[in-house]
Write a structure and sequence with these properties.
The chain is mainly α. The protein has helices at residues 3-25, 29-34, 42-50, 58-66, 70-76, 103-121, 129-137, 145-161, 163-193; strands at residues 87-89, 96-98. Helix content is 67%, strand content 3%. It starts with a helix and ends with a helix.
Length: 194
């Protein structure tokens, strides 16, 4: 195995491990285990090796050279924790528009961003790193406005109050409330239909 392949494997595996720990903290066990498995597929892994740099996503380097990233297009179409997965033609059919992300994928996106910041920032990581990155990329995002506000709120909480409080907030106030809402809706539907 060449050096880039081994280094890329180590980076994506370390990232996957960090996201898994974050997901487990929020009770998202299945998502933690399955997170980013497509990065090991030939379509993504090969490009990761070719464009590996270690301090940023290989997708960015591929995009700079080609004007697009084949690995990223493969990845975003298979991983629901990326807001780019949640795009569709707008109601008036004039453009692409963001779709509001379900809470479980919003939480995984948060976990993913925190882990990526830790991996790429290394010893320079702070709890504000993911917030800073979000603010830098705001101009070209197709993220649904509600999803953006929710993510901004969570990343601001992380920057101001730290990981423990933020992960606890997500688990208790976003994910558990979402599950309660689903159960209530199922009960209503059942009652209406019987």
């Amino acid at each position: 195995m060449n050096r880039n392949a081994w280094n890329h494997f180590k980076v994506i595996t370390r990232h996957k491990w960090e996201v898994m720990k974050n997901c487990f903290r929020m009770g998202l066990y299945k998502q933690g285990l399955l997170h980013d498995l497509s990065k090991y597929s030939p379509a993504e892994f090969k490009m990761g090796v070719v464009y590996f740099q270690g301090n940023r996503s290989p997708n960015a380097a591929e995009r700079e050279e080609k004007g697009y990233s084949t690995a990223w297009m493969h990845h975003k179409g298979r991983n629901k924790h990326h807001f780019e997965y949640w795009t569709d033609v707008s109601k008036d059919k004039s453009c692409l528009a963001g779709v509001k992300m379900p809470p479980r994928y919003l939480a995984e996106m948060f976990a993913d961003r925190v882990a990526a910041s830790k991996i790429y920032k290394g010893k320079n990581y702070t709890d504000a790193a993911s917030l800073e990155y979000l603010k830098k990329s705001k101009d070209y995002t197709l993220m649904h406005p509600v999803t953006y506000r929710q993510l901004l709120f969570l990343l601001t909480m992380l920057a101001e109050k730290g990981e423990s409080k933020t992960f606890r907030y997500i688990r208790k106030n976003i994910l558990q409330n979402s599950e309660k809402s689903k159960k209530t809706e199922k009960t209503r539907k059942f009652t209406r239909n019987h």
